[in-house]
Amino acid sequence: MSLTLADVLALPGLESMRLRAGSAGLDNVVRWPYVAENTGIAEWVLGGELVFVTGINHPRDEANLLQLLDEACQRQVAGLVILTGPAYIQVIPQRLLDAAEAAGLPLIEQPYSLKMVLVTQAIGSALIQSEQLGRSRHDVLERLLAGDFQSLDLLLHRAAQLGLSLAGHWQVVQLQLEGSDALFTQGDAGHMEAQLARQHESITRRLRQYSASIPVLGRAGQWTLLLPAADAVAALANREQLASWLKPLNLRLAPLKVFIGLSAAAHPPARLALAQEEARQALTAARRFSERAGLCVYDELGVLKLLSGVRDRALLDQFLNERLGPLLRHDRHHGPSLMPTLEAWFHENGNLVAAAQRLAVHRNTLTHRVQRIEALCGLTLDNSYDRLDIGIALMIWRLSA
After folding, report:
1. Phi-psi category of 349—alpha, beta or left, where left has phi over 0 and alpha has psi -120 to 50?
2. DSSP per-residue codes, 371-394
3. Does residue 137 contact residue 145 with C-beta atoms inside 8 Å?
4. Is the dihedral of CA 196, 202, 205, 207 positive or negative?
5. Which of 215, 212, 232 is nearest to 224 (CA)?
6. What is the DSSP string of 159-201?
7. Sequence-distant (≥ 6) Cβ neighbours of residue 5 within 8 angstroms
8. d(CA 126, CA 199)
């Protein structure tokens, strides 16, 4: 459960605080209050703070207030509160109000007559209550997704008491953010850590918009959410919505990348643990198979469902070694060439010209490699049964990469 700016303005005792601009951001989540003591705030906030500007320690003319607003937008704070009165900041400049409105950043006016200790106490108490409620709701949802309950009826009753309505049918979505290692090679570790935290918060905020009534579970670059999906039509709409968000998101995040796996549709609360497993399998396929563009639905897995159902990993490894072991050993000793060639050949449905273009090699080079593959494996790519075995072995290899 999150405390939004709209919630803060509705707290008892804070009626004299007025929203002056930026109503579009009233759903911004407040992580904690922060009183700005310095000329700027960029070095002192991480995102999500409700920043209070008093003017007591530093003169706050129009230029400085506009600077604070700009830094607040850059650091993705929840909002700005300007304390006004006869002693320090007499009036909020119109240019500041116009800029806040244009940026969609809430700007709140607080009279000096309202003591800061009362404001911070009210917000702090609300944050604690919100956190406790949020933990309880998360616990109920996590138990449902794990199948960790003795009585479904009792757990759903508890969910209803917490304002968590789970009636209906759902689709589970799992997301994973990868590439943080590459990100930290680009600059100062502290700066990259702050950037990664901002990206996590930005993704979480967007996912909350998709799942307004159900909490988003997330930690360490992984998120799980429930989307209503009574049938295949609703599930397709969910897929299209997420796909349209994912492509521009990954272009902006590079070198980071988000992968998404979705379960099948129409899972009642009693089957959410099964839906969770389906979403996990789909996420694995989205990460391992680049042609899926970072997103996969369980219904699209095909033969991968069978492979995922094999509990004895040794059987899969044995099959892979029997079919493609010579190629794997060749590439370990001489560098990757034959396995990428085989993948490209399959991806292009045996079209040598297209496969050569995909690998940026001459067609004659590709032809020689294909002949080498057949000789090492003792298989024939023109034989439909051999192609089936090789295709399955490639899937196993990709899933274990």
Report:
1. left
2. HHHHHHHT--TTSHHHHHHHHHHH
3. no
4. negative
5. 215
6. HHHTT----S-EEEEEEEEE-HHHHTTSS-HHHHHHHHHHHHH
7. 25, 26, 27, 28, 30, 50, 78, 79, 106, 108
8. 26
What is the phi/psi pair of residue 240, to 5°?
Answer: -65, -40
The reported pLDDT for the residue numbered 401 is 63
Q: What are phi and psi of 344, to 5 degrees?
A: -65, -40
CA 361 to chain centre: 37
Contact assessment for residue 315 and residue 396, using Cβ atoms and an 8 Å cutoff:
no
Q: Rounded to an integer, what distance in angstroms lies between the CA atom of residue 203 and that of residue 258?
A: 9
Rounded Cα distance between 310 and 108, Å, is 58
Q: Tokens 């508890």, residue?
A: 158
Q: What is the largest CA-CA distance in the chain?
A: 89
List of the chain residues with pLDDT < 50:
none
Q: Can you give the pLDDT at residue 234? A: 92
pTM of the shown model: 0.64
| CA–CA gap between residue 171 and residue 398 (Å, rounded) | 26
- Check if the beta carbon of residue 4 is closer than 8 Å to that of residue 27: yes
- CA pair distance 354, 4, nearest whole angstrom: 53
Q: Tokens for 283?
A: 């996420």
Spatial contact of 110 and 52, defined as CB atoms under 8 Å apart: yes
Q: Which two tokens stand for residue 210?
A: 């998709």
Q: At which residue do the structure tokens 């490639």 appear? A: 394
Strands (E), 291-374: 295-297
Measured distance CA(136)–CA(181) in Å, rounded: 33
Residue 303 three-state SS: coil
What pairs with residue 21 in β-bridges?
107
Q: Which of 73, 130, 77 is nearest to 103 (CA)?
A: 73
* Closest-CA residue to 376 (of 349, 335, 342): 342
Report the alpha-carbon distance of residue 175 to residue 272 in Å, rounded: 16
| Tokens read off for 53 | 């500007």
CATH numbers and ranges of domains, the chain: 5-123 (3.40.1390.20), 170-300 (3.30.70.270), 310-399 (1.10.10.2840)
The residue behind tokens 């072991």 is 325
